[in-house]
Amino acid sequence: MPHRFAPIFDHHSHVSLYAALQGCLDLSTCANPAAALRLMRALPEDRLSLVRGWHSGRLPLSEADLAGLPPLLLVNFSLHGLRLSPGAAEMLQDTDSELVARHADPGWCERNLDRLLVLYGRTAGLTPAKLEAWIQSLEATGTGAVEDLLLTGDAAWRVMRASRWADRMPWWTVPVIFEALPAEAKAECAGLKVFTDGALGARTAALAEPFLDGTPGLLLHTDEGLRQALAALHPHGKALAIHAIGDRAIGQALGALEDLDRQGLRFPLVRLEHLQFITEAQARRARDLGLVLSMQPNFTSDSVDYGDRLGPDMLARNNPFRMLIDRVGFRPGRDLIFGSDGMPHGLAYAARWSLFPPHEGQRLSLTELLAGYGPAPGDLPALELAIDETAREVRLVGGLR
Ligand SMILES: [Zn+2]
Is residue 90 located within the same domain as residue 132? Predict the structure, then answer.
């Protein structure tokens, strides 16, 4: 049965990064290490290249393998880690000696993820042609507007504001990038992004209990450090977007915001990003503070994909939408908004996991899902979604072009 909908507004993606990565060598479909090495050897010798989609388990590469390669950043498929060929280490030594020395340490990578993402974006380079191609690929998924949660810098800002989607791509960035932007860009910036924990893929999200292999997860700040970091951002007068996946990180973010609130330090808007393991008590505190929850219904699939690292209780606690809406009173589109984080973009995948979730508490109706995304601005043609209840599949019928 087909359902018509207006193109959606994706509230969490990485425009300047993902668009720049297009055209970079992608190893995600590479069959074996020998094939990957052949492709990487063909990259230019005279400049730094970025290679993405590398899965260390599927494509194991030794130091000796890397030694013979042109200068390249070999970026993990999750973007949370990388290797450098010796030529790349040499090129980055002057500008980023700390990265060269410490990039093999996963804890360091997680604490410096903002720096890594910016390095990736800049190495790959954003051009008007890449951005236009990326926008067209988004349009084909039924997306009509998108927020960039981490602008990679001045150069990307100039390309984005010249694009036909300039007024459909609000962007946020981390404080270190914000500080270096020209005044005009600072004025346009939607808000500042702060990370409080890592990711499930890298086992660095800060959950109340360790991952099944004993990995504890990683809080990026002390309680006091986070409170001070947020207080220092207050004078900018900008909104905040706080990345917090695990309940330990969510609790820390709420504690810091409550503390600042008591001191009268309030922000124009505070969004908590991801929140996959928010508890009911935490949800009530978030609502009392007037926070907006920015979540990704497609990450409901983590409850299936991460059975290797999360126990059954944690898998069931991921993306507790029914608790948030039915018990705590969050309203999709008002204080509960949805995005994709680009994994993948578009309504179909999010709808598949919302309508046919592994756990009942994760269920969203199509109406709730569409309200949480909200329609993209402008008068865009409607799209159709085909929902197959028997096969538990959702497919987009036709795109914007
Ligand atoms: Zn993100």
Answer: no
